[in-house]
Amino acid sequence: TETVDAPEPIGTASLTTSPKAAAGPSTIPAREAPLPLAPVGGTETVVVAGGCFWGVQGVFEHVMGVSRAESGYTGGAADTANYDAVSTGATGHAESVAITFDPAQITLEQILQIFFSVVHDPTQLDRQGPDVGSQYRSAIFTQSPEQQRTVQAYVDQLTQDRIFSNPIVTTVELNTEFFPAEDYHQDFLNSNLDYPYIIAHDLPKVQNLMDRFPELFRTDPVLILISH
Question: Which of the residues are catalytic?
């Protein structure tokens, strides 16, 4: 196994055109196989992409009924499912988050409501805020034909009701190939609260979740890793 350097200490990274670029090592081994996303017990999984996965994962880790929110890559091949390759914008992958939830506690529609109203701007094409490229596109990767119909109907309704002043560019794709991201990306928001990018772009989303959906907000996040 190749040894890679650890991320820089919190607060010391230089924020350039892509403020998150300094967070990870330069050489990452490729993922060899996708993660199967079949339902486990009474849970359901949906994969969403809405910009940098730090914020998307961090918000959903604070949502009641969510048992797991894992950052990863979706839309491309296994041999390019690593941060260096995906960051080129040429792999077809989007930075994504696999959200596993209990439908008895939170519905798919509530997950989608949070995704569209708190997590990202679905009218931005191939970008979110300071991050630009197809890897930051707005997309929902559904895990079953039934989920595909539900999600597409939800997006169609948002469009019909003209909830946003600009057209929604979110794509809805039936896709089960989700590749987990490197460990140093997991739980990044909730483990790096002093990181400049997190302060500027992601903590306001967590606050927005708490303000808009207090009944769904959990103070203690459900985390992927025990430690970093």
Answer: 52
